[in-house]
Amino acid sequence: MSKINLRTLLSKTVSAIKEKLGVDSFTWAQFETKLSEAMNGADAFSKAVFEDGSVSFGKTEGDGRDLNIVVPNGISKIGLGIFYKNARLKTIVIPQSVETIEKNAFNECENLVGITLNSGVKKIEENAFQYCDSATELIIPNSVETIGNNVCEYSGFQNIVIGDGTKTIGESAFRYCRNLQTIKLGKNLTSIGESAFQGTAITEITIPKGITVMGTGWFMECNKLETIKFPEHEIIPTFTSDSRPGFGTTKYIEVPANLVSAWKAADRWSDFENMIRAIN
Length: 280
Hints:
Elements: E1 4-5, H1 6-12, H2 14-21, H3 28-33, H4 35-39, H5 44-50, E2 55-56, E3 67-70, E4 77-78, E5 89-94, E6 100-101, E7 114-117, E8 123-124, E9 137-140, E10 146-147, E11 159-162, E12 168-169, E13 182-184, E14 191-192, E15 204-206, E16 213-214, E17 227-229, E18 238-239, E19 252-255, H6 260-265, E20 276-278
Parallel strand pairs: 1-2, 3-5, 4-6, 5-7, 6-8, 8-10, 9-11, 10-12, 11-13, 12-14, 15-17, 16-18, 17-19, 19-20
């Protein structure tokens, strides 16, 4: 289904919108900036706006006023590319009813600074927050199970917290987030895709014990990375390929004291035995 710009959709339903708003006339800016209030819940029109994939806010032009949106409760997903390249979007609040944020939903929203994800979101698809230059923090709630490929790639995030419900992080998820200094991984992760943290500014990272296979390119070009921690591992992780793992500028690989000798002798890890030490 081809996308229809929201402005075009509104022009076809002006009578219904006037009735909904209780006014004789309205400007596009008035409606756009008060969308959530106007909808008063997840009626058929707001579902068309946010869910069905046929509507797009599109690349915005005009007077440059900020667009702040609180998505109505009752909406089940944020549709494919709905805010793609929307330069006016400043803040977005996702309600508990939303389960999926689809591909490219906020891709290239260069002025998006405020992202609130309420518990209820289960899946964030690929490229959802890619190239969000102005965004600085992303708190992913415990409800999120899957984070897609390239989800935040090339974005401005400085701090990311991933909830304990997340099982999978896709390839290049945070790749080249050049400002990313801290990332907290959920304790129940079982899979992290290749190049997930490549080119970030993290200084240390703690790997959950459910991760038993590591990507060789996770930490390539991490030029501020000093410490990688494995505090709860009982099994020494293997690697996804035979290529030499890239650990950036890592000084220390910290592991449980009872595994230090075995870790230093393990295949592929033996190349880094001088970096391996007991965790503090």
